[in-house]
Amino acid sequence: MFSKAFVPYKGYWSSPFSRWQGMIQNEDSVYLGASAAKQFFALRGYTVDLFDSIVFGTTIPQKSWFYASPHFASLMGNPMISGPLMAQACATSTVSLNYAANCVETGGNQTVLVATTDRMSNGPNILWPNPNGPGGQPTFESWVMDGFAMDPMAETSPTGTAENVAKKHGFTREQSDAMAIARYNKYTDALKNDREFQKRYMLPLEIQVSRKKTVMFEEDEGITPCTEEGMARLKTKPGCVLTFGAQTHPADGNAGMIVTTKEKADELSADKAVTIQLIAYGAARADKAHMPEAATFAAQNSLKNAGLAVSDMAAVKTHNPFTINDLTMQKILGVDEKIFNNYGSSMIFGHPQGPTTMRLFIELIEELVILGGGYGLLSGCAAGDSGASLIVKVN
Question: Does the predicted model carry a pTM greater than 0.90?
Answer without folding.
Answer: yes
